[in-house]
Amino acid sequence: MSTRGGGESVLARAVRILEAFTQDEPALSVSEIARRSGLHVATASRLVAELVAHGLLVRDERRLVRVGVRLWELASRASPALTLRERAMPFLEGVHDVVGHHVQLAVREGEEVLFVERLSAPGSVVNYTRIAGRLPLHASSSGLVLLAHAPAELRERLLDGRPLRAYTRHTPAASPLLRAQLAAVRRDGYAHCPGFVHEDALGIAAPVRDRTGEVVAALGVVVPNDASARAVVPVVRTAARGVSRALGAEAVGKRVRAGTTRGGDGGATLPLAQ
Amino acid sequence: MSTRGGGESVLARAVRILEAFTQDEPALSVSEIARRSGLHVATASRLVAELVAHGLLVRDERRLVRVGVRLWELASRASPALTLRERAMPFLEGVHDVVGHHVQLAVREGEEVLFVERLSAPGSVVNYTRIAGRLPLHASSSGLVLLAHAPAELRERLLDGRPLRAYTRHTPAASPLLRAQLAAVRRDGYAHCPGFVHEDALGIAAPVRDRTGEVVAALGVVVPNDASARAVVPVVRTAARGVSRALGAEAVGKRVRAGTTRGGDGGATLPLAQ
């Protein structure tokens, strides 16, 4: 990280500068950028100037630095996240019309959930997720869906490793509990998470598969933590299936319907009676 | 562009690599990236490897390179485009529910329109815009709204400079015609563009203002090019006003309503009789 002059370190430093910006603090002074990125002010100042010249950062009228729309454009126009989001959007809108509150689409990035879309209504239940925001895999319904279908070695690392954060007394932060949750997600085809992130909120999420059958995203809702939430399960599962179809996952549906596996999210009937 | 070893050129080359990816060709080989970015294959290969190490690019199973979700995350989480889009989304959804076809939100980036959001319905009229895609300012309804409120020197440069592209015989590509269009946008408070980009499509857009009263975006629709489109004008204007309010533009509305200016998009009544 501290090598100077090489091509690698310039890019690494530019990435550290971009990492300094957050949704809560989107406008930073150069000295604050330097502090957060661990760079000398002179180095940060020179790199910021160059990033501004390319439009990747912009300076506002107070001389504070912000992320530029040009960076968003470069990141978005060929982004798999945007393609996924565009295919999913009609289904997300449909769920949002019926369920209200929060409807969201998430992918796994390393050991975290990254939310690529969220639709919210005024007066919705509390929800910590944000577009382009992250949560740990074990705590949210989207995370549990993605973790349940993640490579086994990642799952085992999380299950056997560091202590996991308990957001509430319901968060499955202990390994045996988390293991049981993941088994339930694979068996039932969805995650049902009452009060895992906040006592008042309940998350429900189902897997989105691509044409190869691989789970590439989770579609979920965050609704009030009460008995009425169960009725939302088939809505979420249907929408997740719809997005999967839109991504070309038809063949997978057929294969699973033919009965080669039991349960999972391949069942042709919805768990209306759960 | 051809200096070697300096910090500037590494970033410039990385930007050129990112620019190689498009929505139509999101997966490229390293040699194709080198060709498009004008870099030696060895240079491109080394930079791609480093961008992959940072997660800004990813390699797929065929060894083709794509834009990484991490880049989207860094670009999006503190992006003004995302904040604008989040505030606008409930209004865009409302318009989409009522009007169907395409509803979009655009900002000006230099001398072009950049579309930051688009909602479309199946079977909608033809539309060339895409999320994170661009169009010239003079051709589309969103572009005319943004150009009408752009700095005067930019407007004069476009009006007096190079020949402008005519997409159809209705595109205001000639200066006097374009000048008249821009005056009409400022007078009426919206742009109404029958067949400007495609004979079968009609664009309507209205300005979105921030708390300072500055026009920061255009909210528009693309609908079939027929007489029924006029009825959509008040819907678009109302939604654009709604987004402006959500961005804190109340004071501007009050100031204009008090009668200090005539016309513009400040009128309290909608042009239902136009």
Detail the topology: elements first, then pairings.
2 copies of one chain form a homodimer.
Chain A: H1 7-19, H2 30-37, H3 41-53, E1 57-59, E2 65-67, H4 69-76, H5 80-99, E3 102-109, E4 112-120, E5 134-136, H6 141-148, H7 152-160, H8 175-188, E6 191-194, E7 201-209, E8 215-224, H9 233-246, H10 250-257
Antiparallel strand pairs in A: 1-2, 3-4, 3-8, 4-5, 6-7, 7-8
List low-pLDDT spans of chain A: 1-8, 251-274
The number of distinct β-strands of chain A equals 8
Say what the CATH topology of the largest domain in chain A is: Beta-Lactamase
- Morphology call of chain A: globular
* Structural class assignment of chain A: alpha+beta
Oligomer: homodimer
Order of helices and strands of chain A: HHHEEHHEEEHHHEEEHH
Number of helices of chain A: 10
Largest interface: A-B, 55 and 55 residues
Rg of chain A, nearest Å: 21 Å
